Amino acid sequence: MPDQPSADAAHETYSYLGPAGTFTEAALAQVEAAAGKTWRPVNNVGEAFADVVSGRSIAAMIAIENSIEGGVSATQDALANVPGLRIIGEYLVPVNFVLVARRGTTLDGVKVINAHPVAYAQTRGWLETALPTHGHIPATSNVAAASELFLSSQADAAVAPPGIVNHYDVEVLAEDIGDNPNAVTRFVLVGRELSIPAPTGADKTSLIVELPDDRAGSLLEMLEQFSTRGVNLSLLESRPIGDALGRYRFVIDADGHILDERVADALLGLRRFSPQVIFLGSYPRADKQQIEFTSRYDDEVFIEARDWLRGLVSGEPQTAETSSVTDAATGM
To answer: What pTM, to 2 d.p., does this model score?
Structure first.
């Protein structure tokens, strides 16, 4: 059993889905704070999060969404069931693939292919055109697909990331075999840091929300918490809770920061509505795109409305000036 790392060592270690050469490693390479630190490859999401919870690692890089395949269910479910985790950053990695084989193999000699199921789905069109009679053996990762060619694999070739040539002595049989040249995978850096970074104007807030019951209108009521505050959702995916049929939780990415008044007000509405709201963090968007919303959802409008109500409760006389912010926002 390996020695337990010291507290200082844990603060120098980042976990990622390995082995070396994966897209996850490419995402971790974008983290400035991780440069020069220890990178620990792990086998699955559960192991990565266990590293963070136990203190073995300060944070873990995990894939959470793909532009072709959608959300990564293993990551979403783990975030819902492992308490105390926060997303502290997101990173985008363009996804493309090459077909590689042992030296001396030719394309017309390929009959069976190693490929991770997600990678296979994203290259299937090319494979069916170039190798219409090929067979497929699922691999545990994109790098493992190539590494297994040198073991007792029955495969003749593998679908792998372009950087695989830096780690294995393979021959590239074909490049750019992805069916969609615009494919991107979104990764998140997950840690235990509970402090929230200041808003930048280009932020995202991630949540997991359970519906209170299985009845008509429940989903609409949840969505209204956002729509009535002018908060756009960039991700909405359902996952079964698992305790009964018809019980679902929703993984949500909302445009904005928890310190934005409109987002904070939406969270208050969610808290009143749902039996379980998990706040996963507010953090800068990887694309740095500024959030757009109409002026009636400016912070000042929410602040003025609270001041107006406070004045009513305390018996302050109403004046024309108390409505100036609202009037300006609505154009009245």
So the answer is: 0.82
